[in-house]
Design goal:
This protein is an all-alpha fold. It contains 15 helices and two strands. Helix 2 packs across helix 4, helix 5 runs parallel beside helix 9 and helix 8 packs antiparallel against helix 9.
């Protein structure tokens, strides 16, 4: 049970960790400025923001429960309902976890939780897909550039293996979505940067549907393979500029195909014609997607 808070300290009296005097004074000062009555309209959001800062600065460590709702409500000068709303917000983004019978605890911060909120937003905001492609244009050529300077022979061997599987699937007409995803994952690992690896993993999760869409286009699997081969050859030469250029060209081709696919979609047709476009009508015109892909092939 959390003891009443005195002097601005929010750590449990039962499990308090001793700190140097200077550190204690700094923490008390920071906590005092953050735990004060809130005057803003969006009360729960402000509470969540302050608790987040207290988690980040170590005032609320992961192995100790937060003070009780009643205590926090008194210190913030708000209702317990506002505290619960703030807790729910922080649980949604992965900063808090409630353990039945024990209380609400801060969670250990890791790279997955760093990018998980971004993945959640982009999964449901299809209007942000163009922005996602912009992110790829900015991010992936930079990844390829760094990878060219750090790639190992083992990395190249793994990339060559992926390309071999892509070639075999291309000749038999099978989907190579798994290999397409794995290629970008291995490239990120070649940077030896854990944040890059996690961000790429999130991008790969977000790109599953668009890859399914574009890889159905006539000529797209072959062009994907050629793009990957160009990147690997630049990596083999340890040429950062060439690797970045090859990746940029690869992504631009994908963007062109997605634009054509979007233009040929039922939603686009409905907007253009000013009347509903049924899925059956679209399905009855198989040449539409092929014609779009052929413009860039």
């Amino acid at each position: 049970m959390v003891e009443p808070v005195g002097g601005g300290s929010l750590t449990s009296a039962r499990r308090r960790v001793k700190r140097p005097a200077a550190t204690r004074r700094a923490v008390r000062g920071a906590a005092s400025s953050l735990i004060a009555p809130i005057k803003k309209t969006r009360v729960a959001e402000e509470i969540a923001a302050r608790i987040r800062l207290l988690i980040l600065d170590g005032t609320f460590p992961p192995d100790q429960p937060l003070p009780a709702e009643r205590m926090l409500a008194e210190r913030f000068g708000v209702s317990r309902g506002s505290i619960r709303d703030a807790f729910r917000t922080l649980e949604t983004i992965g900063l808090l976890v409630t353990r039945h019978g024990q209380g609400t605890f801060p969670r250990e911060l890791d790279l997955e939780r760093l990018v998980a909120p971004l993945a959640s937003v982009l999964s449901y905001r299809h209007d942000l897909q163009d922005e996602l492609m912009d992110v790829r244009r900015m991010f992936e050529p930079a990844v390829a550039r760094v990878a060219a300077a750090r790639v190992t022979e083992a990395d190249l061997a793994e990339l060559d293996r992926i390309l071999d599987v892509q070639r075999k699937k291309l000749t038999t007409g099978r989907s190579a979505i798994a290999e397409d995803t794995a290629f970008h994952e291995i490239l990120a690992r070649a940077t030896r940067n854990r944040v890059v690896i996690q961000i790429m993993a999130t991008l790969n999760d977000l790109l599953v549907e668009s890859r399914k869409l574009t890889l159905r286009q006539k000529g797209r699997p072959g062009r994907s393979l050629l793009g990957h081969e160009a990147v690997v050859e630049a990596l083999r030469r340890r040429d950062p500029d060439a690797a970045a250029d090859a990746m940029r060209e690869h992504i631009n081709q994908i963007a062109d195909l997605l634009e054509q696919t979007s233009a040929a979609s039922p939603a686009s047709a409905e907007a253009t014609a000013g009347k509903p476009a049924s899925a059956e009508a679209t399905a009855g015109k198989p040449g539409l997607a092929e014609a779009a892909a052929g413009k860039h092939g």
